[in-house]
Design a protein that fits this description.
heterodimer; A: 322 residues; alpha+beta; B: 536 residues; mainly alpha; 77% helix; 1% strand
Chain lengths: 322, 536
């Protein structure tokens, strides 16, 4: 049965989590508006949207990582939208100043270390990963990865390109092997003794703790998680967010879904499903995240993550971190 | 690969006059040739769009493109040489053993050897990473260029195995018979008679394997390698420079041209149409027990490393996870898209292949052009197809890419990407069509379409079926173009597996990945049946 056209909202999403599907289902239940989704990767969605022009069916665009959202905005694919509910729901630092995109969940970039080889205070800061102490003891994934890029982009914004270059070169000099695999592979490599520390998004660690594979649970028992730079600038944090498509045919439906994503109901639903941090302090996080306690977040303008992304990619390449 | 009427062979001895007349006729543009030209243009357009866009001036592209291009070229070259060389050697040896020797388990292995083709390279890469990297059971980690080359070799050898099996099946050709009659050892016959005779087939299968390696992004990226393909995506995703990505991609298209040219040269000028008359089967070499076990172990090893082991690993993960969420719909979508895409591509490929054989220069240029896309990553071809719709929009022909047009673009991207995988087997099948037949039919007044229907199609029928099945499996495995051009709420198995794998949920990704393989199994078995039947 084809739902009435006005009762539909079309979403282009660069997030393909089961959690999101459940969120959309809950939205449908609450509002009677059907959510149709096209999940694909952000860079390719951008090219498709460009060519679609005003023929697009996309109403809301969802992406993980502020860098991707910034690119969508730069390409003129997002329209500025502001409502009281959105302004109330999303802290100013976690949204575009003009309302082109709004964060709805947070992820932290953390340090994973092997408990039998490293004292937690030795990896209190991302700077530590570049110290000679960890010569041949660091593993990392490819720098093409957007989380890795955004993290360095934030550092460039805060401390300048020279500092960022020195850090990337220092970490690169400490590699135990060339970058390969994804975040989870890095955690497993540290657990297996291939290296002493790595960096990854926080939720991969918690996911491994609950894995149905006993080998994963055993691996994660050997490593610890640090929210770095608590004594300094704070831990690097990125968002998943969404914005209304410039050529949306049903902008009011898109806004409705966007408001739902930052509502208490959706935030409470999302927290335990995906191990991400809720977008604002008031909403309780999943128990294992809550156990980390409140922490200091790196304060960098979100758009810097996108603006400085290409520069970050160049710096990684110059440092030989591919 | 049906036995030909002996009268066909006699047409080989066409008179010089009739050959000369055939040459003159070649230049005439008939309906089929025009159709082939259109098909080739359609298949080549996205790749050419990439080339043209790459020439567009851009500020930042040159700044970092150089080093990436160089390192990527080195990486791709190494993988093509070692991975592709491995696939060719493994495939050719396996085909010879199965076709010419008797050893325990031969009949079963002849079927099983084709299985790895149903598993996408990126799935094999994830499986080997999971099995051999940190946390895996293996003491040796498969990493870097050697690791990826291994994955490609065991995953792609069936291209060569299939093509070479068909060629060895016709091993009753007089040269081999003569060699055997003269008492040559199996190895000698292989090197000095069978291999040279099967060269065109091995070259055709090998070219597919090599281009597949050049185009592969998923496996190379997971292994952390810098290749032309991964460089394309580094430029596009990390630097946000689709322009530079296109420039690097055009290097891949150039590589495709080189590979296609090498393949044509490896075929040589001989038409190999002779010796088609089927002599009585003189039986297989009986191997000594030790040699027999070695042969059986070799073939078993290929099946184990190319399919059984990675699949068992996936099956274990799928079982650990225990639940399968709404997998039937993606399965249905996959099959639907693969059938539709394969049908369209097959029509284009057939007409291109027939004319390439028949109409001299025009046809050959068409076949080259249409083959380009096979060496480019699917995402780049999709980008090319998108760019063409962008041009149409700028010209005011369409208001923008609607959902229906996106689906058209998707099928177009399939045709552009996989035409070569269809053209190659059909072309190989047509090597058995002597040019004399076509000339004779012309002389008798048959027009181009009639000759296509009454001569080319029946002769190529078995290879048409083979091409259709290969295309079906290719599109079943295809990810990037499907990912970006599919409609709303339309997941395929590959898309589902990707969604989970990109979120690093390998346990959840295992079931859809496994199903891609299962869905490809039936066509693979049909394909093998066709090849083996011709071998009997």
């Amino acid at each position: 049965m084809q739902p009435n056209d006005a009762q539909v909202v079309n979403v282009y999403s660069a997030r393909h989590y089961d959690a999101d599907r459940r969120l959309y289902a809950a939205f449908e239940d609450a509002t009677g508006v059907a959510v149709r989704v096209l999940p694909a990767n952000a860079e390719q969605l951008l090219e498709r949207l460009r060519v679609e022009g005003d023929a697009t069916e996309a109403d809301l665009i969802v992406a993980a990582d502020a860098g991707n959202l910034w690119r969508m905005k730069e390409a003129g694919l997002l329209r500025n939208t502001t409502t009281p509910a959105l302004e109330q729901g999303v802290p100013a630092r976690l949204r575009d100043p003009n309302g082109a995109y709004w964060g709805f969940s947070k992820r932290a970039r953390v340090i994973i270390y092997r408990k039998d080889a490293v004292q937690p205070e030795e990896v209190a800061s991302f700077d530590d990963l570049a110290r000679p102490r960890f010569r041949s003891q660091i593993v990392a994934r490819s720098s093409t990865n957007v989380y890795q890029l955004s993290m360095l982009a934030a550092r460039i914004e805060r401390l300048g390109p020279d500092n960022a270059r020195a850090w990337a070169s220092g970490v690169r000099a400490n590699f135990a092997r060339d970058p390969r695999g994804n975040d989870t592979d890095q955690i497993k490599a540290v657990a297996a003794g291939e290296a002493q520390a790595t960096l990854c998004n926080h939720y991969y660690f918690f996911r491994l703790m609950r894995s149905e594979d006993g080998a994963d649970r055993e691996a994660v028992s050997k490593v610890g998680l640090i929210l770095p730079d608590q004594a300094g600038a704070g831990t690097h944090v990125n968002i998943s967010g969404a914005g209304v498509a410039t050529h949306a045919k049903r902008p009011e439906r898109a806004v409705q879904l966007l408001e739902y994503l930052v509502s208490d109901a959706a935030q409470a639903l999302l927290a335990p499903l995906n191990d991400e941090f809720p977008i604002r302090p008031g909403v309780p996080a999943a128990p294992e995240l809550a156990a980390l306690g409140a922490f200091k977040e790196e304060e960098v303008a979100l758009d810097a993550l996108g603006r400085r992304q290409a520069e970050a990619a160049r710096i990684y390449e110059e440092a030989g971190w591919r | 690969m049906t036995a030909l009427d002996p009268t066909t062979a006699s047409l080989e001895s066409a008179t010089p006059q009739s050959v000369a007349r055939a040459r003159r006729l070649k230049l005439r543009l008939d309906g089929v040739t025009a159709g082939a030209a259109i098909a080739a243009i359609i298949c080549a357009a996205p790749a050419f769009a990439v080339l043209v866009l790459a020439l567009w001036p851009s500020d930042n592209a040159a700044a970092f493109g150089g080093a990436l291009l160089r390192d990527g070229a080195v990486g791709t070259l190494l993988l093509v040489v070692f991975g592709g060389g491995g696939a060719i050697a493994l495939g050719a040896i396996a085909a010879w053993l199965v076709a010419a020797c008797a050893f325990p388990g031969r009949r079963l292995l002849a079927w099983l050897l084709v299985l790895p083709l149903a598993a996408p390279s990126y799935v094999l890469a994830y499986a080997y990473a999971g099995m051999t990297w940190a946390g895996g059971a293996s003491p040796v980690a498969l990493t870097g260029i050697p690791g990826a080359a291994f994955v490609y070799a065991v995953g792609l050898y069936p291209y060569v195995y299939l093509a070479a099996s068909a060629a060895f099946a016709r091993r009753s050709s007089s040269a081999i018979e003569a060699a055997r009659t003269l008492g040559a050892k199996p190895l000698d016959v292989f090197w000095r008679a069978a291999l040279p005779l099967a060269r065109p087939a091995i070259a055709a299968g090998g070219a597919l394997a090599l281009m597949e390696i050049a185009a592969d992004y998923g496996a190379a990226h997971h292994f952390g390698l810098t290749t032309l393909s991964t460089a394309v995506f580094r430029a596009w995703y990390a630097h946000g420079e689709p322009q530079a990505a296109l420039q690097i991609a055009s290097a891949l298209l150039a590589a495709a041209l080189v590979l296609l040219w090498i393949e044509r040269s490896a075929r040589g000028r001989a038409s190999y149409a002779g010796g088609l008359t089927r002599a009585h089967d003189t039986g297989r070499y009986a191997l000594s027990p030790v040699a027999g076990i070695a042969a059986a172990s070799f073939c078993t090893g290929l099946v184990v490393f190319g399919a059984a082991l990675p699949l068992a690993w996936l099956a274990r993960l799928a079982l650990l996870h225990g639940q399968v969420e709404d997998i039937l719909e993606p399965l249905g979508n996959s099959i639907l898209l693969a059938m539709g895409g394969a049908a369209v591509t097959l029509v284009f490929a057939t007409i291109i292949a027939v004319v390439a054989r028949r109409a001299g220069a025009i046809g050959r240029i068409g076949a080259y052009a249409a083959g380009l896309g096979y060496a480019a990553p699917g995402a780049v071809i999709a980008l090319g197809a998108l760019a063409l719709f962008g041009l149409a929009r700028d010209a005011g022909w369409i208001s923008g890419l609607s959902a229906a047009l996106a689906l058209t673009a998707l099928v177009w991207a399939y045709a552009a990407r996989f035409a070569a995988a269809g053209v190659q087997p059909i072309d190989a099948g047509l090597t058995r069509l002597s040019k004399g037949i076509d000339a004779a039919a012309r002389t008798l007044g048959a027009n181009a379409w009639r000759r296509l229907a009454r001569i080319d199609a029946p002769i190529a029928a078995p290879s048409l079926a083979a091409a259709g099945l290969i295309l079906f499996v290719e599109i079943l495995k295809e990810l990037p173009a499907t990912l970006i051009l599919r409609p709303f709420d339309f997941d395929t198995l590959a898309v589902r597996a990707y969604a989970y794998a990109s979120d690093e949920r390998l346990l959840e990704a295992a079931a859809p990945a496994l199903l891609i393989f299962v869905a490809g199994l039936l066509p693979m078995l049909l394909l093998t049946r066709g090849v083996l039947k011709s071998a009997r």
